[in-house]
Structures are given as C-alpha cells and as structure tokens.
Known about the structure:
This is Molybdenum ABC transporter ATP-binding protein. InterPro entries: AAA+_ATPase, ABC_transporter-like_ATP-bd, ABC_transporter-like_CS, Mo/tungstate-bd_C_term_dom, ModC_ABC_ATP-bd, Molybdenum_import_ModC, Mop_domain, P-loop_NTPase. By secondary structure, this protein is α+β, with helices and mostly antiparallel strands. The protein has two domains: 215 residues, Rossmann fold (3-Layer(aba) Sandwich), CATH 3.40.50.300; 128 residues, CATH 2.40.50.100. Helix content is 20%, strand content 35%. It is built from nine helices and 21 strands. A six-stranded mixed β-sheet has the order 7-8-9-3-10-11, sandwiched between helices. The longest helix is centred in the middle third of the chain and has 17 residues. The chain is globular and about 65 Å long.
Amino acid sequence: MTANGLTCDVVKQLGCLRLEAALEIPASGITALFGVSGSGKTSLLRLIAGLDRPDEGRIAIHDDVFFDAAQGRWVPPHRRQLGVVFQEARLFPHYRVRGNLTYGMPTAARSRFASIVELLGIEFLLERFPGTLSGGEARRVAIGRALLSAPRMLLMDEPLTGLDGARKQELLHYILRLAREIDIPILYVSHDPQELSAIADDLAIIDQGKIRAHDRLERLLMRFDLTEHLGGFDAISVLDAWVVGHDASYALSYLRLADGQQLTLPRLNVDLGTRLRLRIPVRDVALALASSPAISYRNQIAAVIEEVGDSEPGTSAVELRLKLNGMGGTNGQALRARLTRKSFDEMRLKKGMRVVALVRSVAFDTSQPPPQA
C-alpha cells in the first residue's frame, strides 16, 4: 500500500447479508467498486465514510486510523476528511451555487475555489439556484462542494444514476479531468460496466458482501474464472494507446499500442501524443492465421493465444485470451476473443499459437483515462 492509500477490512451484518470486505485502495486514480444491486457496494462506501459503524475490523488511510474495533477507536464522519458524492446532489435549495460550494469550506481550500470551478466547468452556474440546474449540472456542483472540503479521498456513489446518455458522457468527461488533475484517490461505486470501463484504473468486484477480486481493470477483464461475476464486462477488452498521427484525406487517426503496433480509427479530434483508452467489443474481434492486405480489416494485431477458456457442454463458443506481440496479460496488454468451436477446431488453434486479431476500425470506443499512478 502506497502512502495515503486506504485499507479497509470490515464486518457488518446487514439484515440477511453479512458484509465481510477487505479492500486496499491505491493513493491515486479511480478504484471502481462493481456489483449487482444488493451486493454491498453502497454499504461498504458508507462504512468507509463513517455514516455507518462496522461490527468488526479496521479502516485507515495510511497511519490515520478511522475505525479499529480491537482498540475501540471510532472517528466520526466530519473528522475523516473524506468527500462524499451521493446519487442525489443534495444541494441546499435556498443557497445559490456559490453558497453551496463555499458552505463549510475550510480556509485552506479558498485558494482552490477558482481552479475547481474551472475544472468542473461551472463558472456560469455560480449565481443560479439548485432548482434551475439540470441533473448533470447539479452533480458537478455536488462534486465541486466535495472537493472544496479539502478531502483526502473522494467517495462517489453511482453519481451518473438517472442521467441520460449525453449527460452521462458529459459528467464522465469531468470525472476523468478530475482524476487527472486532482491527486487524491477516488472510490467509484457503480453497477454499470460501460461507465466503469471508461474511467476505472482498478476494479474491485463485490458479490454477496465479499470482495471476489481486485486488480487493474484490464487484467480482471481477461480472467475467465471471473466471467460470472463480471456481468456486461466480459463482452469487452480494454487497451491503452497513444495518438501518433492523423490522415485528413481519409479522415483517419493512427494510434500506437504499448508494444509498438499501430491501429487505425476514424478521425479523432485529439492532439498527437494523447493517451486514450480503447474499449473493444469481443464480437468485433475475428482471428486469422496470418496477416493479409487483401481483406477490409485495417487493424491486424499480431498476438499469441495465451489461454483457452473452457467452453460449457452444449455451447458453440470458445473464449480466447490473446497476448499482444508476446506481451503477456499480466505485464502487458491482452485482448479477448470469442469464436465458434467449429472455427476453433477447423483452424486448429491451441495455446501458444501465433495468430492475427482482426478488429474493424469502427469497432473501437475511446475515452481518455487518467495517467498511470
């Protein structure tokens, strides 16, 4: 655990659910807590925030202990220096946005007011009342208020719930900016795989009150043993890439993967050198035994079959994990593919075999993630 990261190992009986969760959150970046409704996501966040008290265990940021059952230590919420953003904005209706942002703001945070307002794009909202704000605007104000409390960590409980697609994308953009520019850890609770794959650095899977797995997002998505816990996640792969060129005549952009291979996407309105996160649907990945200029797939990625998933009896599909150009799924980038057992057998595929992953240019979905810690 790095300095200022959070450690949590708690037990709490919640009606029929017994929460027994051990979690370590890095000192920077976004850790996503994912699980179905009723799995214990929000309950764990409330225990960390101090809104509820665990029955047993310990919670600490570095050497600052918030709760320790063995020592009888309990620090109330207002002394934990944690910013909390709920599903509802919970703004004071009789205060303007400026008043909501500055309510309870410590003196030390005053110098950051202008930069936080600019970061969240809410300058034009300062003199308005909460009742006049859209859902996305109100959430951004709530995030700003949490940041201006000078928190050591930000806890976000499904902040995109209830927003439409455009407002979701807008708020995701601001959360990504926040993660890049504000150097504090963020715990982000959600049940939506698509939004988490866009912003999460780490992913923790909670199921029936227990943390089933916690690792870098891209590594967990490659684990076949977690498929039943991953919900919609198992349908995508996540790769990081850097923009290295644009082709105006064909309206294309060129990206470089960590292993040096190049990808072609429809033109992106981003600067050269920008790091992007690519979400590649499994359904848009095909396999070939060799590259070829005589097919329409422009993205032909050299890879090695790293693992073959066990297909269930009676099913027609086989899952494959591909390591890109010899870079393993643990220490490098990997890609997940799914094909019929008939194709698998006819191509005589096996573990360790070199193949070419074919990905259509239009299959990529991009977002800009925070930098690596």
